[in-house]
Amino acid sequence: MAQWAQLVRDAGITDYNAACAWLRKEHGLTSNYSMMVSGIATVSGGFANYGDELKMLDAMYAGPKEHLRPIFDKLYDEALKLGEDVELAVCKTQASFRRSYQFAIVRPTNKTTIDLSLALPKETEAIGILHRDPTRDADDRAQWRIRLEDVKDVNAEVKKWLKAAYKCANEKRK
Question: Which of 32, 133, 155, 168 is a good FRET partner for 139, with 20 to 30 A between their CA atoms?
Fold first, then answer.
């Protein structure tokens, strides 16, 4: 994300709306991603601290959630193995993995649990550790959730679902 923000600055764009439009038109970024990048690049919308993703991850997994960081790190390592096009986007309360589209959201839900939300086809059925996420709207891409409490929970089944979501992230949702 910091690289995109620097690209906006290098282009001399200082207006938030102009930056959003430019990123969507010239670089094909999605609306949400272009808004986040523009907020960082133009220091508007409360995004001034969003440029340092490592610092944001450290803050997200500080204190009572510190023991959950290895779970995130393992998920991120697995996501990176899926392809060279995987990007990380970090916000205050969650991190997401994306390629053409966002395919996974990782959020420390509480002191003991990380939720991995996945963008899978709507017709996907709940099975095993995969359940529909009741906190997501019906139109959200990432409607499927896997709860993780330990790094050992990032097993073959989790990797299978993460890979499936990655494959779907190149397709426009119908």
Answer: 155
